[in-house]
Design a protein that fits this description.
- The structure is a homodimer.
- The first copy, chain A, is mainly α.
- Chain A has 14 helices and no strands.
- In chain A, α3 crosses α13 and α13 runs antiparallel to α14.
- The radius of gyration of chain A is 20 Å and the shape is globular.
- Chains A and B meet through α9 and α14 of A and α9 and α14 of B.
Chain lengths: 354, 354
């Protein structure tokens, strides 16, 4: 049941947005490159639904392949690169891709008010907040394992679903209907059920401190996600690559802090890229693209869609792992997947009346 | 997790209806005896909701105490009475209680078209069908254990929920809204999740024959329940105690057949009531009252309410068992109970628009 031990996905959510260039390289089938080139400017209302579907599918597929890459890398043996330098590399790669996309846009459309890199203090001052929140959360992660084992932590991480829903409601002031709330609770229950194994009951013995830390981490993670959406959506006409660039710059800065705190000696002695293999490079590339997809979902959909997308990715990973690694699916997995499917159905039919 | 091994409840559903006398003995608080005395005749439309709530609560409490009695009897040690004679006794007791209630009604209201015991062939011809279906189902139960173990059978029994919903729709032609269908699937998933334990995955290795038998048993049980509702509701003004009387007479007859098939030698050698203890008597009384409550629910509510009621009873039993027998609740139980709770909520808000 290794698929449960998928790496913390929120790391990639650090910062916001999608890199256009990355998608230009291989545009999703059925979407003309021209219509995608206009994402940076004002989005075409008619294609909003199509766009939303594409970025959601991209996020789902990237997230599930991400988990598979992690299982693969573990199978391949050692896993001895520094996680903090890998996170920094992901941020740097996303930053580079954003700049490349911007370069292309400047060339085609010229520099405008919306796509110029220059920013006001008023605009940029909020950008470090999500990255800082994720840094705190990732540091807490090292301490929570004093109270909870790894499978228990996977279970508790599903609290993110609830915290995201609650903060989405409070901070973004968007309404979910009663049915959608019920669906959201079911999503959390279904995901947790799908991850149940024989040792899951240990989580019920989690000491109070561990539980508090898990709740704080869920709130930090949910707050960072919702806050990123708020930042990105605050200026709808602003080019997403510029928004990304600034988010990623602060992502790099905060991950540099993490390297200093946790891995300074190792990096000094062994070098920055020590232990990187082909698969490490694939994982960094995948994480960068996933981060980009997360940003796209934040811009063109919302955090609720993101949570559904990553939940479905978790289930997809398990099914694909059956074929790739010969994993067995449990009865709990079938039950949980069915509950998640019903949740998605209820979410879609339960749209609030306006 | 013994609460999972609760005895097959459908046995009590053999026949239909509630015995008024039994309720007169201890009327539920807040309901005047007079308004209850009129149940046998035409029901008061205004008190329909109240009545529905009371019979549903009675069924829930009786069913959960039933499972607790079974655990208690197992704890007490031997369990060596004949199950077929116990079933026969339950039917006989229900029959006697129906007659006693009728006697009282005849004395108060006189004999009318609706409460006379005399019946036409046209009315009575359908009454043996539910009892016959349950007999077949109970006999099949002895053979299914060649393919499935007891915990696996408990899991597969949740198919009853789905079969009841489908047959309710097909036979009674009553509509459930989309949301109510989703809720019904969730009820099945939630109940199964709540019953998960470390050996539950064995059920995935159930051979094809075992699975087919489980599905057939679920269909028989669902069909018997829905058919009983159809019989009882076909003549709304007919006194429920008369309907019960005829149902229970055939219940007695078919259980007599079961005694001949399975326990004839034992009964001949050891006697009919061999092995009966105080707790056996309590269980028979409880089963009779539960059967009565099931009939009440069929008359004043429906099979859907019955399924919800017995599902909640299963959860209640587990919680009460924590206090009575020191059982531990699993994480799966919490997840399943939450899904069941959301299902009840969705069922209530998802009423079809008329």
């Amino acid at each position: 049941m290794e698929y449960r031990k998928i790496k913390d996905q929120e790391k990639d959510g650090n910062v916001g947005e999608d890199d256009l260039e990355g998608l230009h390289g291989k545009p999703p089938s059925g979407v003309p490159v021209n219509s995608m080139a206009s994402f940076g400017g004002s989005s075409i209302v008619g294609s909003k639904w199509k766009l939303k579907s594409i970025v959601t599918m991209a996020l789902t597929l990237l997230t599930s392949s991400q988990a598979i890459l992690i299982v693969w890398s573990k199978r391949a043996g050692k896993y001895d690169y520094s996680v903090t330098t890998a996170n920094f590399s992901v941020e740097a790669l996303k930053c580079a891709l954003s700049l490349a996309a911007l370069g292309r846009i400047w060339k085609n459309e010229g520099v405008t008010e919306d796509n110029r890199l220059y920013t006001s203090l008023d605009e940029v001052i909020v950008y470090p907040i999500p990255a800082a929140l994720y840094l705190v959360k990732n540091l807490l992660q090292y301490y929570i394992f004093a109270y909870v084992d790894a499978p228990g932590y996977q279970i508790l991480k599903n609290l993110n679903i609830i915290s995201t829903g609650v903060l989405y409601r409070i901070i973004l002031k968007k309404k979910l209907s009663e049915i959608q709330w019920a669906a959201f609770i079911l999503l959390c229950m279904g995901c947790t059920t799908a991850q149940l194994n024989s040792s899951s009951d240990h989580v019920l013995q989690t000491p109070f401190q561990g539980l508090m830390m898990a709740i704080i981490m869920a709130l930090l993670s949910g707050f960072a996600g919702v806050y990123t959406e708020a930042i990105i959506k605050k200026r709808p006409s602003r080019n997403i690559n510029v928004q990304n660039f600034w988010l990623y710059v602060f992502g790099m800065a905060f991950n540099a802090v993490a390297i200093f705190i946790q891995d300074f000696d190792a990096v000094m002695n062994k070098g920055f890229f020590h232990g990187y293999s082909l698969i490490t490079t694939c994982m960094i590339l995948n994480h960068a693209l996933s981060g980009i997809a997360v940003s796209m979902v934040m811009k063109y959909a919302d955090n609720i869609v993101k949570v559904y997308s990553t939940s479905v990715a978790m289930l997809l990973t398990a099914v694909v792992s059956v074929f790739l690694f010969g994993f067995h699916l449990s009865l709990a997995f079938f039950l949980g997947s069915t509950v998640v499917s019903v949740s998605i159905y209820l979410h879609s039919i339960g749209k609030p009346q306006r």
